[in-house]
Here is the input.
Amino acid sequence: MHGPFDFNLRHLDATLAISQHGSLKAASDAVNLSQPALTQALAKLEKSLGVHLFERQASGTTLTAAGALFLPRVARAIERLRDAGRRLRRSMRLPPIQFFERVTSMGHLQALVAVEGTGGYVLAARTLGLAQPSVHRAVKELEATLGMPLLERAGRAMRPTPQGERLVVAIRLMASELQAGLDELATAARVGAARIRIGALPLSRSALLPDTLALFMRDHPQTDITIIEGPYEELLAALIGAEIDFIVGALRHPAPTSAIVQEPLFAEDLFIVARSGHPLAGSADATAAALATYPWIVGATGSPMRQRWDAIFADSAKPAVQIESSSILLARGLIIDGDWLALMSKDQFRIERATGLLAPVGGPVPGSRRLIGVTTRTDWLPTTAQAALIACLKQKAAVRSSVS
Here is the structure.
């Protein structure tokens, strides 16, 4: 087994029925399969996973330890798909499909996601290692099953319709649950690597995440961790679409959508930062007019840091020279080599401050305190590895809060 799309949906559904009904006979009736066919489906799934999911007894079947880890994820995955089918049909005023997962296939679902991700059938086919007509046919069959268009042409590219966008998100959420099931089995067997994908906002990258990852990897050295950096809006979309597992950084108030949960870890102030020899370095009463005479590196328009910078100059002229960038490395380089100023948290210039390269201009910027924390999907269920990393985040945040 390599990944979520390598599963057979019918086999997953049949195996889940065994778990829910407690016997092969009851499950075979529920999914309309013969007992030999159901037994074969279970055997193929167990072989691909390399584990036994059930103990067979005269009184019925009971979950093994591996089954107890994997099958709840299967249930969540199939419910994602089933719910998407219901909602999409309802949105088009069509009669419901009771068991969408039984009338489609992983090939159909993967084809749609591939076309959405690449913008066309040619690149999607190349990505999947299939012939272009096969990918085109798979998407058309999926559209026929649901009774609605899922893709539309936009110039030379293909883009999802509103219904297609919703289904792609549901498919990615389904795949995320199945991957979580695989990760749980790998963690339990101490083989392979569990995967964690973290969206990192600027205020988490300098100290909190590095310290957390160093602590976590001591006990989980085989974990496959990917850090994705980007603007908040991009990371939020990736989180909702199950392309990342959680976001670490400044929280938004109010939360931009009910699809997320924000958990604060600690509060952070911002400082105006300059090189140590800057005329304003160490100044406790620099006015907005004085600050405006120097060039600035400012955050992206609409970001909390940019809003705080705008507030500094709300009643005076803004600096004539500005560079808009969220790169702390760029800001440090410009500040060290010139008279540039920027807003940073203590963590973002702690090393340069300790070595005498950078210094704050006065104390914390009034009104700049923000909550730093973890953002997850509303109904997210972390894997064992993900929960352990979140625990490490909280541990490091608690230490940081105690010494602030």
Notes: The chain has a mean pLDDT of 93. The domain at 270-368 is CATH 3.40.190.10 (D-Maltodextrin-Binding Protein; domain 2).
